[in-house]
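Example record

One chain of 521 residues, shown exactly as stored in the release files.
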Amino acid sequence: MCPGCSSAIAAAQAAAAQPARPALTDLVADAERTVAKPPPPAHNFPEFAEEEPLYVARKKIYPQHVSGRFRRLKWGLLIACLGVYYFLPFVRWDRGPNAPDQAVLIDFTTRRFYFFFIEIWPQEVYYLTGLLIIAAMALFLMNALAGRIWCGYLCPQTVWTDLFVAIERWIEGDRREHLLRDQQPWTFERVARTASKHFWWLMIAWWTGGAWVLYFADAPTLVKNLATFQAPVAAYVFIGLLTFTTYALAGWMREQVCVYMCPWPRIQAALTDEYALNVTYRYDRGEPRASLKKAAALHARGQPAGDCIECLQCVHVCPTGVDIRQGSNLGCIQCGLCIDACDAVMTKIGRPTGLIAYDTDLNIKRREQGLAPVYRLLRTRTVLYAAIILLVGAVMTFALATRRSDGISVIHDRNPLFTRLSDGAVRNGFAIRVLNKTVEPQSYALKVSGLPDAAVEVIGSDGKSGADPVINVGPDQTREMRVLVTTHQPLPPDASIPLTFSIVPVSGGVAANATDHFLGP
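Predicted structure tokens for this chain:
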């Protein structure tokens, strides 16, 4: 027999002697290889990371289910946030007659914002400014205390993505099942599962868009009009836009939104310091990494071995596919799921939990030097952020508690500034706006002081209360009127005499004032 034939037969016999690998294992192994695995991490993190491209095409991530305290916290916050968002428009609040009874309402028709017992008018936009300041300071405070708390637990992108992933896992199965199905050819079952998943995603996205427009009109009435196709076109347009964006961002783009679209990861990096807690791999304890068998062999030879056993559970549960062992990463949203996964593994193998935990690099270096860790939640920036929040909140609370239910504003005529009458008198014209923020009609007597013996005429007044003209204003309304002030007194050159316009409720109460000037030649 020729040498080539002998070699071929020997190779075939050797291959036949090897045990056949099960087809299921092959499929799972192939599927696992399709998921990008992180490069082997190093104990000593380089000062400068290797240059990466500005954009990397998305590789599908299959987050694995995990149980633990952070996962329970995320579920609790998800239920609370979505419960408030979806059902708050249907909460009622009695404000009396002539006022809407929806607890939270942004009414563009009357230009009002209602929040339970608070009613904000367009003139009170400074309350919105205060809320924005408080929100910004709260975001900064979260970052100073524990990194990206907002991103990991409260961000709408995180909340809706968590919900979409839960729906996907319910239909497609957990990580390995989903990986396996994605490697199989399209069958009726796979098509049915995929269609069902996208149907529920669209239903959630549609409900999200529908709930949003309910904040801008009476919710039960708008639901009825939407169902009977009698709602405004704008309502259907905004529902469609929000349905599309929710479906695209939470169902398809997911971690790409956090990495490429959201500016906060880049901003918070400039606001953090060495004492801010972050989800951290404690490499002082985990390195050098080794499997259980390899670690036992290293210990037997008297060589060190860390607690990390390279199980990759921290990577598999991460919703953004980050390997926390590589250190700080733009894609890490600090959700803490890797902590739950690692703690579960450490418990199973009988090692202490906390290999991944909320910690600082400063503490890791201190432990390497044999020093005790240092935690400083109270420091200059956290105290400053909290003080600003309390100060702005106190100012807003005081302003709300002491604000009036009525008001007056005055605008002087611009052209002409004054008029010389035929009898020598000087007249100034003013436009006044009277506000009635109550739910009952009110009558106000108008008084003008600062110019003795001046004649006051209100065009279109509703009578007089004594010598003062009366202005009637409907419930929760404003009324604008023209006021003419005339004097026969001699005026100094380029006169500018302060005037005070006051409205006094006819039924009794404290006057509301506004000031302007009487101008002369």
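Notes: The CA atoms of residues 28 and 180 lie 6 Å apart.
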